[in-house]
Amino acid sequence: MLRHGPAILPEHVCRALRVPENTAGFELVRLRSLDGVPALYSVNYSPPALVPVVAAAHDVLEGKPR
Questions:
Q1: Is 61 exposed, middle or buried (0-12, 13-18, 19+ CB in 10 A)?
Q2: Neighbour order of strands in the sheet with 3-8
Q3: Among residues 49, 1, 41, 6, which one has the least CA distance to residue 26?
Q4: Are 5 and 24 in contact (CB under 8 A)?
Q5: Euclidean distance between CA atoms 37 and 44, whole angstroms
Q6: Is the pLDDT confidence value at 63 over 90?
Q7: For residue 24, is it left (φ>0), alpha (ψ between -120 and 50) or beta?
Q8: Measured in whole angstroms, how far is the alpha carbon of residue 13 from the centre of its chain?
Q9: 3 state SS of 7
Q10: Please, which pLDDT band fits residue 65 given cuts at 50, 70 and 90?
Q11: How far apart are CA 30 and CA 26, in angstroms?
Q12: pLDDT at residue 1, as a whole number
């Protein structure tokens, strides 16, 4: 996990999630590795309704598999 927390969702994300522009949501930025080699960089956004669920997922936020 590189970064996580509340964030204003980018315009294209608001359109995709069908929420108003400048909506606050949750952002997860991760770098995943295979055998110690970086393999995937991902940025995930969650809409406002899911912020409490994602914020409470401590294993996910600590980068631990579920």
A1: middle
A2: 3-8, 24-34, 37-46
A3: 6
A4: no
A5: 21
A6: no
A7: beta
A8: 12
A9: strand
A10: low
A11: 13
A12: 87
pTM for the full predicted model: 0.79
Cβ neighbours around 22 below 10 Å, total: 10
6 in Cβ contact with 51 (< 8 Å): yes
The single-letter code of the amino acid at 11 is: E
Could you write out the three-class secondary structure of 10-64? CHHHHHHHCCCCCCEEEEEEEEEEECCEEEEEEEEEECHHHHHHHHCCHHHHCCC
> pLDDT per residue over 23-33, tens digit each?
999 999 999 99
Residues 6 or more apart from 13 whose CB is under 8 A from it? 25, 45
Answer for the pair 47, 53: CB distance below 8 angstroms, yes or no. no
